[in-house]
Amino acid sequence: MDGKCIRCSKPAAYPVRALEVRTLHVRSLGGERRVQALGNETEGAVCEACAKAQLDLDTNPIKAVKPQLIRFGAVFAAGLAIIAATLLFVRESKQVFLLLGLAALVCGALGIYDAYRRANEKTAPSARYRKRKRWRKRLGTYILPKRRRRKTTTT
Ligand SMILES: [Zn+2]
């Protein structure tokens, strides 16, 4: 395969077809808004490393948000440590340190929640559909009433 990778310009290994997404900025008195439209279908190619990276990202979306999870996990842990240290060692003006620890806890928890939400968005729709179907099936065996087949009368 000749040509260069559309991501990193190394020699390409796999052909890809992609749809262009064009963004139009519409400025008016009410402000600016963006309108997106599909453009032409383009042919390109990607290298082995980029293809593998994209496959990893599609199959394991948690891996893609791992740095964010680690960062906000550290903030959360720092919040716990500040609160614990304040309760154990600080004698005066505890409220300031407790508030700081609480703020770190809330920030960490929100960051972790956002990372999981983004990982869930990156999950392929078919995988989400399968997960939902599996969940409904499991729920159906315990809670939901069984669907009855409609009787048809023939005369
Ligand atoms: Zn590449």
Account of the protein in words:
With 155 residues, the protein is an alpha+beta fold. The protein folds into two domains: 1-53, no CATH class; 60-137. It is built from five helices and two strands, in the order E-E-H-H-H-H-H. The chain has helices at residues 48-59, 61-64, 66-89, 94-122, 125-142, and strands spanning 14-28, 31-46. A two-stranded antiparallel sheet has the order 1-2. A hairpin with a 2-residue loop joins strand 1 (14-28) and strand 2 (31-46). Helix 3 (66-89) runs antiparallel to helix 4. The longest helix has 29 residues, at 94-122. The protein is extended, with a radius of gyration of 26 Å. The N and C termini lie far apart (66 Å). The mean pLDDT is 84. Residues 5, 7-8, 10, 46-47, 49-50 line the site of zinc ion.
Index terms:
56% helix; binds zinc ion; 5 helices; 20% strand; extended; 155 residues; 2 domains; alpha+beta; two-stranded antiparallel sheet
Number of helices: 5
Adjacency order of strands in the biggest sheet: 1-2
The small-molecule ligands in this entry are: zinc ion
Q: SS-based structural class?
A: alpha+beta
H/E element order: EEHHHHH
Overall geometry: extended
Low-confidence stretches: none
Helix content: 55-70%
Q: How widely separated are the two ends? A: 66 Å
Sheet with the most strands?
2 strands, antiparallel
Summarize this entry quickly.
The protein contains five helices and two strands; from the N terminus they run ββααααα.
Topology:
Blueprint: E1 14-28, E2 31-46, H1 48-59, H2 61-64, H3 66-89, H4 94-122, H5 125-142
Antiparallel strand pairs: 1-2
Zinc ion binds at residues 5, 7-8, 10, 46-47, 49-50.
